[in-house]
Structures are given as C-alpha cells and as structure tokens.
Amino acid sequence: MTASDFPHTTRASYDAIAADYASHFRDELAGKPLDRAVLDAFAELVAAGGGGPVADIGCGPGRITGYLYARGVDVFGIDLSPGMLAAARELHPGLRFEEGSMLALGLPDGGLGGVLAWYSTIHVPDERLPDALAEFHRVLAPGGHLLLGFQAGDGTLSLDEAFGRDIALDFRRRDPERVGALLEDAGLEVRARMLRDVETEGAFPERTPQAFLIARKPVAPKPAAGGGEDGTAG
Questions:
Q1: SS3 annotation, 141-164
Q2: Quick one: how far is CA 116 from the chain centroid?
Q3: What is the pTM assigned to this prediction?
Q4: Helices 176-185 and 129-139: crossing angle, nearest 10°?
Q5: How many C-beta neighbours within 10 Å does residue 215 have?
Q6: Closest CA to 195 of 211, 206, 181
Q7: SS3 of 196, please?
Q8: Alpha-carbon distance 115 to 77, whole Å?
Q9: Residues 144-190 pLDDT 10s
C-alpha cells in the first residue's frame, strides 16, 4: 500500500467490518483500568486548561467518545469511515460525529481544548505522520492537550482479513521516544509518557506493549509589564 492509498483503503476496510468491530470492542475499556486512567487524566487536563471542545479523531464506533462524554467532556467524533460513523450514531445518538481526515480536519485554527487520537494514527504512513501532528497543533487552542494512544515497537502488521471479511490495513508500531520527538517538532510540548506492558490474557489479548503520550500546545507568553523595549518599566 502506498502513502497515497491509505485513506481510501482504511475507509473501505473499516466500512466492511464496522458492525462487527463495534460489537466486538464495545466493552473493551472495562477490562483496562490503566487505559481508563490515562483517559481520565486527559479529561482532567482539558478541564483544567479551560475546557473547550475535544475532537476524538479516528473515533470509530464512538466508544471512547462516549466514555469521555460520560465524564463531562464536551467531545465529538471524526472518522474516515461512513460505516463506523453510522455505528457511532446508533450507539451514541446524543453525540456529534462527522466524516473527515486527520490530515485535513476542516476545523478552525485554535478552536479545540483537546485532541484525542486513540489508536488512529497507527494507520498513517510514517512520511505523513508529521502532517497529522501539524494538523493537531493547528486546531488546538493554546494550552490545549493532545493524547495519542498507539502500539509501541517497530515494524508494521498488515492484515488482509478481519471478522471474516477482506480488508487491507497496516498497523504501524512506533517508538514512543521517536513519536515524542515528532510532537516536539510539531510545536507541542510532551508532558507525559506511559508505556503499558502487553496484555496476553482476557478477551482482548495484545501483540505489543501500548504507548500513551500527552502533549500540550504552548500558551503564548504574556507581554512583559512596562513600556521599555527590554520589558522593564520606564
């Protein structure tokens, strides 16, 4: 799959499995207390930063959107896949879900208090990831927070079948330190890093450790008091 193909193949693949995916993963968070703790911390950071809307980018069937909404977050979802969005609207009829791409969100500059990309950047080719992070920076308000969740490691897992249906999805594992450096390059300050060990038991066994990064768009420094060019009075 080429870098230019991935939006189309990602959309088509998730359209094909949307109903099965939504049913299978609906209660996944119930067995992952550390993941919930990261989401809860993100919700608190957004509130402490003044609130504002949060975009759940790559929201799928809206399970994380719904989780944040239940914790008082003003959140809406964005996804490439119309099938996933249909599932999200059915499961969370009171919430807002829109079709869109993380590479061109169609949102105003600086309008969001938070951005969540929970296992959605994993499908973005390495050469396009800086573009997605730059778009996250653009739509965040100064002081707004970003939370990324992704599989830690290296290499790419390519799947051509899921839930008995043909798909074409690449799942990119990434080094958290490298992703942190890309966030800094995009103008975001990394505030927290968490690496969770692989879960091999339960209903949702994993192949790799899981990484979570929280970053913040810097607040512009306030002008120095006084009228001097060096910031001193007089």
A1: EEEEEEEEEEEECCCEEEEEEECC
A2: 4
A3: 0.90
A4: 50
A5: 26
A6: 211
A7: strand
A8: 10
A9: 999 999 999 999 999 999 999 999 999 999 999 999 999 999 999 99
